[in-house]
């Protein structure tokens, strides 16, 4: 890999340069006026597939607002990513639902209530973070099965898989 510093709204790459482009947890950090340009640039440089994943819509944003307020009530400094989430509403699914030349599949990820519970546990307890890290290393398949049970609507994050349509 070669690191590149650039604006996601003006990528210094050729059209169709990559088979796949993945933008995970990016769009919610992009000011709303630049989000469409970031989507368009991702599509421009992708040959076959683009995957976006991001906290999506007002309920997810409200969940993070509640978490942000919990940090403040606990007199703790919210993490930088959470402070950034408070700067603008999250993108909604409409940003990716009708993209010319691309087929769009959308899947929810991470139940909002579970996300809120998990984030508050992480905020309040270093012991919880250490225990969950150990559980991930010792019993990854069991933990994955449990997390899949918590992966139901309403979801905090949406995953969008965009596949280029054949030009034939």
Task: Note down, in words, how this protein is organized.
This protein is of the alpha+beta class. It has one domain (18-164). Helix content is 46%, strand content 22%. The protein contains seven helices and four strands; from the N terminus they run βαβαααβαααβ. It has helices at 32-45, 57-73, 80-85, 94-97, 112-124, 126-138, 140-149, and strands at residues 18-24, 46-55, 102-111, 155-164. The chain has a four-stranded mixed sheet with strand order 1-2-4-3. Helix 1 links the parallel strand 1 and strand 2. Helix 2 runs parallel beside helix 5 (112-124). The longest helix is centred in the middle third of the chain and has 17 residues, at 57-73. The model has no long low-confidence stretch (mean pLDDT 89).
Layout of strands and helices, then pairs:
Layout: E1 18-24, H1 32-45, E2 46-55, H2 57-73, H3 80-85, H4 94-97, E3 102-111, H5 112-124, H6 126-138, H7 140-149, E4 155-164
Parallel strand pairs: 1-2
Antiparallel strand pairs: 2-4, 3-4
């Amino acid at each position: 890999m070669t690191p590149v510093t650039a604006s996601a709204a003006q990528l210094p790459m050729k059209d169709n340069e990559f088979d796949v482009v993945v933008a995970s947890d990016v769009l919610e950090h992009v000011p709303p006026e630049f989000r469409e340009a970031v989507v368009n640039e991702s599509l421009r440089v992708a040959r076959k597939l683009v995957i976006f994943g991001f906290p999506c819509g007002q309920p997810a944003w409200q969940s993070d607002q509640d978490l942000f307020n919990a940090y403040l009530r606990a007199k703790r400094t919210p993490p930088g990513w959470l402070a950034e989430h408070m700067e603008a509403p999250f993108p909604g699914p409409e940003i990716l639902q009708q993209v010319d030349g691309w087929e769009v599949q959308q899947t929810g990820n991470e139940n909002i209530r579970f996300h809120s519970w998990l984030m508050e546990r992480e905020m309040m307890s270093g012991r919880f973070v250490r225990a969950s890290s150990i559980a991930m290393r010792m019993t990854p398949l069991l933990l994955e099965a449990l997390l899949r049970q918590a992966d139901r609507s309403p979801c905090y994050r949406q995953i969008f898989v965009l596949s280029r349509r054949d030009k034939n």
